[in-house]
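Thread title: Can someone regenerate the structure for this chain?

I was given the following input by a collaborator and told the matching structure tokens would be attached. They weren't. Posting the sequence so someone can regenerate them.
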Amino acid sequence: MSAAFPEIPPRNRSVYEVRRPNLGLYFDRHAIDIPDRAVSGGKNFRIKDGAITNINVGYKEFDDTNLGNQVLLIDSFIDTLGIAFSIWGTKRDLFKYDEVGSPKVTYLNHIYSTGTASALQGDMTVTGAGTAWDTEVKAGDFISITGDAAENLLTATWYEVDSVTDADELELTSNFLEADTGAIAYTIRKTFTMTDGEAWDTAVFPDAPLGTTSGLAAGDHWFATSGQEIVVWDGVAATVALLATGTVGLAFTCKTLHYYKNMMLYGNIVESGTSKPAVGKNSAIADPENMTTLEAGEFIAAEGVDFISSMLPLGDFLVVYAENSISIAQFVGAPVNFLIRTIAPGIGLFGPRMVMDFGDFHEFLSADQAYRFDGVRLTPFGGQVFKKLLSEADVSRASKGIVVISEEELEVYWMLPHSTDGSDDNESVKQCYTEHYGEDVGNAPTPFSHREVDVTAAGFFLDQSAAVKAFDDAEFVGKGFDELAFRFNDRFFTKAFPKVLFGGKDGKVYEINTVTSLPNETLLLSYVYTPMRPLAPHGNKGIIRRIEPVIDLVQGASWSMRVTAWLYERPGGLSTSSSLNTIAVDQSDSRFASYRSIGRYGLVEFGTLGAGFLWTMSGYNVTVDEAGER
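Best answer:
Regenerated them for you:
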């Protein structure tokens, strides 16, 4: 048989040799049936250029700002001039990140600051003059009374509104602690009202006209929906503008939106208090806020009772992903506007953030399988990992699922809520399975690896600071290429290096692919298991004598690779014994580990335990003697 430990030829000693172990994880079969170059299990590793490695599988704080609530949005707004803005969001707030600003993070919420406000120290009542708080303010909004009518700093003193008495009086949730104020300028930060199970969705509309509802000047506009409100921003204004709440602005709200054919599309509608989950609306051409004239219209994108989760272009078509079906739509103009065809009834989207757009095809997770869609065919992929993962997924937290791509690393990160994450509906996703779509594996399935995360959102950041990296920078001087975490031709030395960011339940934003540790230098347990193989023919026992991993040199390393032989009496049984040895990754000692481990079946565990304990393995040899005793 073909195996990582091939069938032993008729002699007493055999050497099992594996090279390019880059086929990744297989969960859909027993460890004894896994292909030669695959792994039967593992944690915190990646597949890279024919090898298994743990280099940069950890993550660290990107910025030390705490957003005060779990991060639910990390987005980039890149206008037609190439200027990039980074926008973050929680359940109640939006933030702008400015890499050269001071401070770097400020609120982007829409505000109300008409009139003046006054408060007394030790009192919970705030009194207004010239205000309309009864129509503009709600419980859960925040007020800052400092004389500034455009306060947007996280470090400002903010008080939460408990209730609104009337147009010129409101109550706080806590006593006002500052000195008495006269009637001075103030800022009310209007919070969003997302509910559990909702997710932010965003889109950029290039070269939009003057906003007839938002009032924003003509230019590139960033749109976002929280599921309860729709807002828009032009990259210039200090705050977003409110476009719709269902009672203010547009006559509807939506759960998802997207730019398509110079129109803004809004899907999964709530209009006049009525939910229309299978309905989409399109704006007039070239005017995203015009929903009543010209080409503006409404369409039904899914049959029966279904819920639009996401909408993405694919060539000339629009793919509408609903919970229980997939449809394609083509814009044909008035009076029909859209021709819609259901292509996959019964196959829907697992969660609203579980589609990856590769341009010429999409990948997405359904309830039972992962699929690729090229506009014509639905093709399952990744069955060796996703069948098991989806069977264990926490469907009640489907909206927490996330997928994001790193084109720099040729990796897609699939983060699926699991039943072991925790009982809280707002619990973060703890496991990430990486699709190595650029790895050359011939006709084998695309390989997958694993890494630990603690994530509630993911997105990109384009570094456009004035500081361009150079080889004579202090952080690089005196280091060899084997010590640097970038390739020689890496875009690390350009101004716009795309970084993949994660948002956490703790309100912080993290950067991945930069360190081999978890935040605060926490130890990173990293390992893989080989396939299981018989150690001798005809059911006889074998003795593992030597295990030799082919590992890269890490000069000056003080740590070793842990090499553990696991022995079994039968393929489906528990391990009967194990033996641990170590091999220095600085290659200062023997290239192999010696054993006297006896069993009928065996597999090997390779890995490290520590912060920054790097290792890369491009193959391994296992020497076995036949021991007899059938």
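The CA atoms of residues 56 and 513 lie 5 Å apart.
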